[in-house]
């Protein structure tokens, strides 16, 4: 279970000036614990400390950075059950999904430990013309400096890890603002980091009000902003960030194509996972399902039957597949979108009922193209079915979106798979599986309204480092 209260971490040290942030058990609606909230002055102190830590962090040898990350891996394994239960409580995440996220947290830090000793450079031939005779070039990657991270509520551990672990591997100090709805996972990461010998100021983890967090975005002492969250907030932060580089991992309304040659049993099984795992609250959760007309009726009937069997309820029970959404407000929003779509002519195939923050796993068909539940990000347990008759038509349907994060394609045709990879306007194409699939060393990110840049440890490290060139002249 959770502690009675949690401090924040400022310059590697726990501080508890208050216990102002109530963390709610998303299933019971009761206060589960309380967390210290950082003031603007606290954030300012943390940024100043990160500036002081920049050189010591950059000068840490690779083996020392690796040792810090490996300590985290060891402690996360030892605290596996505690971490999973914290997710279950603060995020309402079904316990099996919570355990899966802890596993991915560990994977992400394992990858970072490996990459921490691989950050190299190149010898660059410069003698491309007679004037460069006697010159040689070399370049290496160096840490960019203090980084600002803002992480979301839906993967409180692993999406924070995708910022923290690469920063440690690259040698960058950081300040992290976890989501106020789900701060506990990040604070446990801070508790583990505080056990290490990182230079003072190497990390700060500071829950705070959104209106008090401008320094995370606007302060010029910070050399990179990495944000994961909603598109509206992300693009607004980019506009305020000034000269610093910005990485944005934003939303989506991910689509999957089920072609006529697909194994329907396998496709249904994977799409159930993709649409409804952790109650659909994933930016790559399956929201739009394009099915070839030759198999549409059979596929729809199988999917509806499988969806109706999903158990909803207390996320602490192992049989539960559908837990609460993050808040009743969000459940009301999505339920309203379902009702609007039905009023506009959509057919409700199953689900559609709401009880507080609990929303049934819901399937719709004949959804109007301009319905919010189709063209916006649902971020909940709702998916829409569409027919297609031609594979190129299906690709166009996927691309008919303001978003472009990942897409899935169930086909056995190599040429169609290659066509999808060539033509789909997304950051990643997953063949034979749902767009919701991610391995933590992949380059992960999107195009259009889905963001800028790529995460995945090695790719995040590229954003957190800069190329530094050295040219050597040998006199004749």
> Rg, please?
23 Å
The helix content is 25-40%
User: How would you sum up the global shape?
Assistant: globular
- Provide the β-strand percentage band: 15-25%
Count of runs of 4 or more consecutive helical residues: 15
Separation of the first and last Cα atoms: 72 Å
**Poorly predicted ranges:** none
Mean residue pLDDT: 97
Q: Going across the biggest sheet, name each strand in turn.
A: 15-18-19-14-13-21-22
| Total beta-strand segments | 25
Q: Profile the largest sheet.
A: 7 strands, mixed
What would you call the structural class?
A: alpha/beta
Any overview of this molecule?
The chain is an alpha/beta fold and 476 residues long. The chain is globular and about 75 Å long. The protein contains 15 helices and 25 strands. A seven-stranded mixed sheet has the order 15-18-19-14-13-21-22, with helices on both faces.
Short description:
The protein is an alpha/beta fold.
């Amino acid at each position: 279970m959770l502690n009675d209260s949690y401090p924040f971490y400022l310059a590697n040290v726990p501080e508890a000036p208050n216990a102002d942030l109530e963390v709610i058990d998303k299933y019971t609606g009761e206060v589960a614990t309380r967390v210290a909230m950082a003031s603007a002055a606290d954030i300012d102190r943390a940024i100043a400390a990160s500036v002081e830590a920049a050189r010591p962090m950059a000068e840490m040898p690779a083996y020392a950075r690796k040792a810090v990350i490996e300590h985290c891996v060891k402690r996360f394994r030892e605290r596996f059950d505690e971490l999973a239960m914290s997710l279950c409580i603060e995020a309402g995440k079904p316990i099996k999904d919570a355990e899966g996220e802890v596993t991915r947290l560990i994977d992400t830090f394992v990858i970072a430990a490996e990459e921490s000793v691989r950050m190299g450079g190149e010898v660059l031939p410069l003698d491309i013309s007679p004037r460069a005779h006697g010159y040689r070039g070399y370049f290496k990657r160096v840490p960019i400096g203090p980084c600002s991270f803002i992480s979301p509520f839906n993967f409180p551990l692993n999406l924070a890890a995708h910022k923290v672990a690469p920063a440690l591997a690259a040698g960058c100090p950081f300040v992290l603002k976890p989501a106020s709805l789900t701060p506990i996972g990040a604070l446990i990461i801070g508790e583990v980091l505080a056990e290490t010998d990182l230079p003072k100021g190497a990390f700060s983890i500071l829950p705070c009000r959104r209106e008090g967090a401008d320094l995370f975005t606007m302060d010029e002492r910070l050399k990179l902003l990495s944000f994961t969250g909603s598109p509206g907030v992300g693009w607004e932060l980019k506009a305020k960030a000034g000269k610093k580089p910005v990485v944005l991992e934003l939303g989506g309304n991910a689509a999957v194509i089920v072609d006529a040659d697909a194994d329907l049993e396998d496709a249904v099984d994977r799409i159930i996972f993709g649409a409804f795992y952790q109650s659909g609250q994933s930016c790559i959760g399956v929201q739009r399902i394009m099915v070839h007309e030759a198999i549409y009726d059979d596929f729809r009937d199988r999917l509806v039957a499988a969806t109706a069997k999903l158990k909803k309820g207390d996320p602490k029970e192992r049989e539960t597949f559908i837990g609460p959404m993050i808040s009743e407000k969000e459940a009301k929003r999505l339920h309203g979108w379902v009702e609007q779509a039905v009023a506009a002519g959509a057919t409700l195939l199953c689900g559609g009922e709401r009880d507080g923050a609990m929303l049934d796993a819901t399937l719709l068909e004949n959804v109007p193209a301009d319905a919010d539940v189709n063209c916006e990000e649902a971020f909940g347990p709702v998916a829409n079915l569409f027919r297609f008759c031609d594979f190129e038509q299906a690709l166009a349907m996927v691309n008919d979106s303001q978003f472009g994060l990942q897409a899935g394609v169930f086909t056995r045709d190599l040429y169609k798979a290659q066509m999808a990879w060539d033509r789909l306007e997304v950051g990643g194409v997953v063949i034979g599986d749902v767009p919701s699939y991610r391995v933590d060393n992949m380059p992960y990110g999107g195009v259009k309204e889905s963001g800028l840049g790529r995460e995945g440890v090695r790719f995040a490290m590229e954003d957190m480092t800069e190329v530094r060139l050295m040219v050597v002249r040998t006199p004749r």
